Amino acid sequence: MVCHHHPRTRGAVSMVTFVVEYAKSGRSSCKALKRKIEKEEIRIGKLLPNPFSDDDDKPMATWYCLEGFVIANERARKHKVDSVDDLEGFEDLEEDDQELVTQELFEAKTGKKKGSKRKSSSKAEKKKPTKKAKKAKKSASGGGGGLAGKSVCVTGRITGMTRAVAKAEIIKAGGDPKSSVTKNLDILVCGSDSGSKKALGEAYGIEIWDEDAFFEALGKGSSSSGGKKAKPKSKPTKKSKKVVMEEEDDDDEDDTGEWACHLEFVKGTSNKFWRIKIEKKKTTVNYGKNGTPGVTQPKVHSSVAEAKKYANKMIKQKRSKGYEDKVEEDDDAMDEEEEEEEEVDDVKEDDEDEDEDE
């Protein structure tokens, strides 16, 4: 049972409380995983009364990253978080981050009911190999015999294949082609000149294949052993150039782009604004009252496509709550006046030219 009733902002901390927030700096560390918590990353704090201070408004805080808190919460025998209602500040998180926290805590509770080993000295070490073991098992059953039931993302240049051909081959082998890297991805195929997707895949612990393993799974043989999809020996320069150009176009679709929207609240008299912009893989939300700088919240996504998807989702949500697109009527009127003035000036110049000719 969780022992907390009073938010920090409403009085002294006399019991154990929990708070979730975005890290204000990069100075805190996760107690469970012994790693640095980056600025703007979700962190969860366990707040205890400070026995060394007479000021009850300054509790002792122990910080965890989200993954580390899930582990610590599973091990705890008292002072546990049973639901998101036990987390102060939960409502201040963005909607997708609320879903993430809820999902992680729910998974932790489910794992406990199924009999997770409480006596284990390192739950994180046992959890990660289990995930990799499942992927290795899938790979062993599917290697050389198709990609049935697997989600596969291809990045970089694959010998003799355009991105479109690679996706078609994945579907033909029973797989599910993906254009972005997420934690749920099964296999990441990395060709030459692999970029940020490979680093992201390694960070997520995703199984990574080179193109030889990919060709074997397709039943084509390796690219270096003369398989059907190996680079042709005749006219290699022209063929290779075409493939490279198509791959670069595909990468441009994933890694570049810019988009913006400005909304204002029209239901009531609160005079609020909300806007969002995309700078490649980064979204920046800015909101507040008109006439003020407002609050800015940046967020980095795995790809431009994911950033746009997130932006569209947030825009739909805001419009459903009474926000509408900002109308720049004054700017339009000024533009029309400038056009009229230019037309008048042109007429005057024509008249002057005619007078000079006479």
Overview of this structure, please?
The chain is α/β, with parallel strands linked by helices and 358 residues long. It folds into four domains: 8-113, first zn-finger domain of poly(adp-ribose) polymerase-1 (2-Layer Sandwich); 124-246, Rossmann fold (3-Layer(aba) Sandwich), CATH 3.40.50.10190; 258-325, WGR domain (q64v53_bacfr protein fold, Single Sheet); 330-358. The protein has helices spanning 66-75, 95-113, 123-142, 163-172, 196-204, 211-218, 236-255, 304-320, 329-357, and strands at 17-22, 42-48, 60-65, 151-155, 176-178, 187-190, 207-209, 258-265, 272-279, 282-289, 295-300, 323-325. The strands form three sheets. A five-stranded antiparallel beta sheet has the order 11-10-9-8-12, covered by helices on one side. Strands 5-4-6-7 form a four-stranded parallel beta sheet, sandwiched between helices. Residues 1-13, 111-144, 225-259 and 328-336 have low confidence and may be disordered. Residues 246-257, 326-358 have a biased composition (Acidic residues). GO terms for molecular function: DNA binding; zinc ion binding. Residues 105-147, 219-258, 312-358 are annotated as: Disordered. This is BRCT domain-containing protein.
